[in-house]
Design goal:
- α1 (20-29) packs parallel to α12 (318-334), α10 (289-300) crosses α12 and α14 (353-367) packs across α15 (381-388).
- It is built from 17 helices and 21 strands.
- Helices cover 37% and strands 23% of the residues.
- The longest helix has 18 residues, at 43-60.
- The chain has 3 domains: 8-72 and 170-341, TIM Barrel, CATH 3.20.20.60; 84-160, M1 Pyruvate Kinase, Domain 3 (Beta Barrel), CATH 2.40.33.10; 353-469, Pyruvate kinase, C-terminal domain (Pyruvate Kinase, Chain: A, domain 1).
- The strands form 4 sheets. An 8-stranded parallel barrel has the order 1-2-3-12-13-14-15-16, surrounded by 7 helices. A 6-stranded mixed beta sheet has the order 6-5-9-8-7-11, with helices on one face. Strands 19-18-17-20-21 form a 5-stranded mixed beta sheet, sandwiched between helices.
- The model has no long low-confidence stretch (mean pLDDT 92).
């Protein structure tokens, strides 16, 4: 089952899409990777959904990626006596560690780590930034603030602290339990929320090991300050525009999005653009023109994948949302300007043999009409590097590891195929020819380029580039 596009689609599963029938329809409509959002649902819910995805993988005989998205620390105000209060701009408002229900003058904020990091003038944003407070003075247990932007405040609303670095791990006790369970299921990617510094990704890597690929969700200004180091320590990154748009002025988010895309492309790491991409389709069967343009912009900028959240998890039209996103991507990638924009952003090759070969693949595809570029890979590294170059010919990532094939489902332009380890160059060439023809990527007489590592079966040894013509081979069944 071949996709007729390069960029991938991630779909979040939830109450609107947790049945076998709907998940199958979502996959057929274009979803390449399914997201299990551990902010919602029980472990049992996620186990059932995971089992359905794997059964569909068997039905469709295509590797399907599964992304476990950890909730991360949630900072919230406490409860109010009257459930909600109205705050007026210019008034003072106190936040403290007293659990007594709040009123119009004060509210509990039971997060000592916030008070430990406070500075005079720091802003505290409540309810997705709808209420803005500026710190006037503070102690270890309370803060007097001026209400800059007022409005209705109610119990348990979220708090953002964009001006501060909080000395806390992005992995809560809940996240650690969720991570352990997700890894026991066999998820392919793990995304960590509210990454602030490179050490956060090091902490996650130590817990995950090689059981899954790890992804940094970039939604804090401090993460953008350490962007290159965080990208280098991750297997992929996500532009989490929801909290990013709260933590910084919204007009800066498009600029930061492009910065992340450029950086991730240079490092050869897949990047996902997420949040509110087709938001109106939660209630409507078609997207707005602005939403279509938003998705298109991410594709023109070279995103590996775009993500649907509530549109597929809780919306009224999950399959229609996936279908609409699939159509937008296909239309953009047919535009001649798309190819020009992709080529204009070619990253500087690294000084490795794998990069030299991947760069050669891209140049080869511009000189000759290649039907496909074929990468034999154990870990997926050579397919990642080939995708970094954005070759005109599709990338067939052939691997003996099912786990690698599932991870590659998220990577731009890669069509993953599972095949046992090769034992000779002749076997490699004949297998590449058979798979290319069988998967519908080429016809007799067309040319493919093949990369592999010698000796076969050893990770990180990509050192061979070969071209061959598609031809009829002897029947191996006789």
């Amino acid at each position: 089952m071949r996709r007729r596009r390069n960029a991938k689609i991630i779909g979040t599963l939830g109450p609107s899409s947790n049945s076998h029938d709907t998940i199958l329809k979502l996959f057929d409509a274009g979803i390449d990777v399914f997201r299990l959002n551990f902010s919602h649902g029980s472990h049992e819910d996620h186990a059932k959904t995971h089992a359905i995805i794997r059964s569909i993988e068997t039905e469709r005989q295509r590797p399907i990626g599964i992304l476990a998205d950890l909730q991360g620390p949630k900072l919230r105000v406490g409860t109010f006596k009257n459930s909600k209060e109205m705050l007026k701009a210019g008034d003072h408002f106190t936040l403290d560690q007293d659990p007594t229900p709040g009123d119009a003058s004060r509210a509990p904020l039971l997060h000592p780590e916030i008070f430990a990091a406070l500075t005079v003038g720091a802003q505290l944003l409540v309810n997705d930034g709808k209420i803005r407070l500026k710190v006037i003075e503070f102690t270890d247990t309370s803060a007097l603030t001026e209400i800059i932007v007022g409005g209705e405040i109610s119990s348990n609303k979220g708090v953002n602290v964009p001006d501060l670095y909080l000395p806390i791990s992005p992995l809560t006790d809940k996240d650690r339990a969720d991570l352990s369970y997700a890894l026991s299921l066999g998820v392919d990617w793990v995304a960590m929320s509210f990454v602030q510094r490179p050490e956060d990704m090091t902490e996650l890597r130590e817990l995950v090991g090689n059981q899954a690929a790890i992804m940094a969700k970039l939604e804090k200004p401090s993460a953008i300050e350490h962007l290159t180091a965080i990208v280098q320590l991750s297997d992929g990154v996500m532009v989490a525009r929801g909290d990013l748009g709260v933590e910084m002025p919204q007009e800066k988010v498009p600029v930061v999005q492009k910065k992340i895309l450029r950086n991730a492309r240079q490092e050869g790491k897949p990047v996902v653009v997420a949040t509110q991409m087709l938001e109106s389709m939660i209630q409507a069967p078609i997207p707005t023109r602005a939403e279509s343009s938003d998705v298109a912009t991410a594709i023109y900028d070279g995103a590996d994948a775009v993500m649907l959240s509530a549109e597929t998890a809780a919306g009224n039209y999950p399959v229609e949302a996936a279908t609409a996103m699939n159509r937008i991507i296909i239309e953009v990638e047919k535009d001649p300007y798309y190819r020009k924009s992709v080529d204009a952003a070619i990253p500087t090759p690294g000084d490795t043999v794998a990069d030299a070969i991947s760069s050669g693949l891209r140049h080869m595809a511009t000189i000759m009409p290649l039907a496909a570029t074929f990468t034999y890979t154990e870990s997926g590294f050579s397919s990642f590097r080939a995708a970094r170059e954005r070759p005109e010919a599709p990338v067939i990532g052939c691997t003996p590891n099912r786990e690698t094939a599932r991870r590659l489902a998220l990577v731009w332009g890669v069509h993953a195929v599972i095949h046992e380890v090769m034992n000779s160059i002749d076997e490699m060439v004949s297998t590449a020819i058979r798979i290319t023809l069988a998967e519908g990527f080429g016809e007799m007489g067309e040319i493919i380029a093949i990369t592999a590592g010698m000796p076969f079966g050893r990770t990180g040894t990509t050192n061979l580039l070969r071209m061959t013509r598609l031809k009829e081979l002897p029947d191996q069944s006789t």
